[in-house]
Amino acid sequence: MKSRWLVGAVAGLCLVLAGCGGGSSTSTSTSTGTGASTAPQPRTLTVFAAASLTDTFNELGKQFETDNPGVTVRFNYAGSSDLAQQIVNGAPADVFAAASDTTMKTVTDAGVTAAPPTVFATNVLQIAALPGNPKGITSFADLARPDLTVVVCAPQVPCGAATQKIETATGVTLKPVSEEPDVKSTLGKVTTGNADAGLVYVTDVMAAGGTVQGISFPEAQQAVTNYPIAVVKNAPQPDLAQQFVAMVTGETGQKTLQAAGFGTP
């Protein structure tokens, strides 16, 4: 009897141990499978860009997020001179895209770029008038007429510097009712009817659609604006920054920029 009891006990113990061993094996396999399917860790790429790049960079930003799961592109749009000062003063940024060589030089002279900047696009000024051009504006010189309410960019931002360069080249002095902090604000004065005309970039007129009418003038070619881009030194996301710059300067970026009216460098 004792022998039978002992055999049964041992058999039962083996079954219990076998059951525990099988459970442990299954649990390990499940854990490994779950770990393999973990989603990418969220990361944020911060891009400081000139206001005139808003529509184009928003489009490129969405494409970059699609190509890089888990990445969010956060843009800071403003006048290039303001952005340059923010970066020099330590604002956390991964990429800086300026609307002039001069404002980029502010950043490179301060030694806060990881590598020399690359010019990725060009732009020229155009007169933005009310739809239908009710004031009959046909030239840059017309903007000096006393019957016109004209707005321009402030001289410290690229679109304002370009305006001053054209004034010097033509001998025409404008008397604007306001000098705006960036090109988007200048355009807004016209689209809201607070000005008869404004000097903005041709790309801004295109982006505005039918809310304004663009009037080209030959003197604009005397103040072509370069757009340089660079990775910021000590960027929080240096690898993503390099990828974004490569996208902007590569085929995808160039096609998008040209479709928006930008020129090629």
UniProtKB/TrEMBL annotation:
The keyword tRNA processing does not apply. Residues 1-18 form the signal peptide. The keyword Signal applies. Transmembrane segments: none annotated. Keywords: Metal-binding, Signal. It comes from the Bacteria. Belongs to the bacterial solute-binding protein ModA family. This is Molybdate ABC transporter substrate-binding protein. It comes from Pseudonocardia aurantiaca.
